[in-house]
Amino acid sequence: MSEISLVNVSKLYKNGFYAVKDCNVTIHDHEFFMIIGPSGCGKSTTLRMIAGLEKISSGELYIDGELSNMLEPQERNLAMVFQNYALYPHMTVFDNIAFSLKVRKLPKEEIERQVMSVADMLGISALLHRKPTALSGGQRQRVAIGSAIVRNARAFLMDEPLSNLDAKLRAEMRVELSRLHKKLNATMIYVTHDQVEAMTLADRIMVMKDGIVQQVAAPMELYRHPINQFVAGFIGSPEMNFIPVKSREDASGFSLIGKNLKVEADETIESAVHGDSHNETLQGNYAQKDLILGVRPEDFIPVSSYQAADFLFEPAVVENLGNDYLLHGYMVSAADPFGISRKKEKMIVISMKRNDTISDHDRIPMQIVTEHMQLFDPESGRNLLYPGTPADPETLATERRQA
Amino acid sequence: MSTLTKEEIDHLKNTANAKALQRRRLKTSALLITNVIFAFLILLPLLYAVSIAFMPSGELFSTEMNLLPKHPTLTNFRDALQKVPLFRFVLNSFIVAGLITIGQIISCSLAAFSFSFLNFKGKEVLFMLLMATMMIPGEATIISNYLTVSGWGWLDSYHVLIIPYLTSAMGIFLFRQFYKSFPISLYESAMIDGCSNIRFIFRILLPLTKSAIGAMAVYTFINAWNMYMWPLLVTGSQQMRTVQIGISMLNSVDAQSMTLMIAGVVIIILPSISIFIIGQKQLIRGMFSGAVKG
Ligand SMILES: Nc1ncnc2c1ncn2[C@@H]1O[C@H](COP(=O)(O)OP(=O)(O)O)[C@@H](O)[C@H]1O
Ligand SMILES: [Mg+2]
Question: Residue range B70-75: average pLDDT?
Answer without folding.
Answer: 85
